[in-house]
Design a protein that fits this description.
Blueprint (H helix, E strand, L loop, with lengths): L2 H9 L4 H6 L3 H25 L12 H6 L3 H20 L4 H10 L9 H12 L4
Helix pairs in contact: 3-5, 3-7, 5-6
């Protein structure tokens, strides 16, 4: 036996690389997706809070889609749905994704504007604009 294996058996410590080797490809994909989602969420929320529309899809008009095209926001929404789908299989929701999707689902005449929703979510997450 090599020294490393003996040490690990005695002390029960493993480095990050060894722990990652034991994760399934689906778990590794989920981890990557969640870290990308978290970083992109803050960036998109800041842009939206500054006045950019399109993150929460409040404007469903044909004309609006042409002017409000936002690739990063589309990627964010797709990632949120994929994370929710994977985590639903395991019964473990991601709190950040669920908060975003809750705000995303807000519709109606009395719903706040997209910049206000973004600012509110940023405040709830404890992130500065």
């Amino acid at each position: 036996m090599c020294r490393r294996r003996i040490f690990v058996e005695r002390h029960g410590k493993r480095d990050a690389r060894e722990r990652n080797l034991r994760k399934s490809p689906k778990e590794q994909h989920l981890e990557t997706l969640e870290s990308e989602f978290a970083a992109l969420l803050v960036k998109c929320l800041r842009e939206s809070a500054a006045g950019r529309w399109g993150l929460f899809d409040h404007n469903q008009h044909k004309e609006a889609a042409r002017y409000l095209r936002w690739d990063e926001a589309d990627h964010l929404k797709d990632a949120a749905r994929e994370i929710r789908k994977i985590r639903a299989e395991w019964g473990l929701p991601n709190e950040l994704v669920e908060k975003f999707l809750k705000y995303y689902a807000m519709r109606g005449a009395n719903a706040p504007s997209e910049p206000k929703l973004a600012a509110k979510l940023l405040a709830e997450l404890g992130v500065e604009k």
